[in-house]
Amino acid sequence: MVQRFDVGARLSEMAVHNGMCWLAGQVAADATQDAGGQTRQVLAAVDALLARAGSDKRKIVMCQIFLADLADFAAMNAVWDAWVSPGQAPPRATVQARLARPEWKVEIVVTAAL
Hints:
CATH class: Alpha Beta
Number of helices: 2
Oligomer: single chain
CATH architecture: 2-Layer Sandwich
Distance between the termini: 15 Å
């Protein structure tokens, strides 16, 4: 059975099935912050969702990061590097993409084991 969290008309924030969890793209609640501040917010949201599923950042099996501007790559990485568990860095892809709202600088999608 698939368990869905925070189900809306268009999407769920997270789905859990067969020992895995998939997070929807996470974005900053306060988009007035710079890329570093938005990244901190997004990673805090990832932590909170994973905790609700009974998982954590050490169990991430894949991460996809979307940046509105690759000029923010270093700022995002500085926050990421401080957050990621030593020796547990997951496979990751980072690409530049036009995000759904112009004020968003970073969106992160995570898949993790439970």
